[in-house]
Every structure is written in C-alpha cells, then in structure tokens.
Design a protein that fits this description.
Length: 56
C-alpha cells in the first residue's frame, strides 16, 4: 500500500522497512533494571549474529 501511494520509495528501501527479529511492546510494570538487562542481552545477540554472518 505504501508503494502504491509513494512509488518513489521502492528503490530507497528495497522493499524492507523493518529489521529482522525486532519486536516492540509496552513494558508495563517492569523495572528499569530488567529493561536495561534486556537491551544488553539483545545487543549481545546482535553481535553474535553479525559475527556468524561475517565468518561465512
């Protein structure tokens, strides 16, 4: 639908708007420490994925 309304965007993003594996949701009653730990763990997973993709 976006490309129908804005065809000039097709070449800009190669039909990809979102990164693989990311999910967003409100956090409700979660401590700041839990959020920080989650962010740290996600950053570590991203680094591992990048290392795996560059070794091939």
């Amino acid at each position: 639908m976006i490309y129908d309304r804005h065809p000039e965007l097709q070449s800009k993003w190669s039909k990809s708007f979102w990164a693989r594996g990311y999910y967003v949701e409100t956090i409700g009653n979660v401590t700041d420490e839990a959020v920080q730990r989650y962010i740290k763990e996600q950053a570590e997973e991203t680094r591992k994925d990048e290392m795996r993709s560059t070794t091939f």
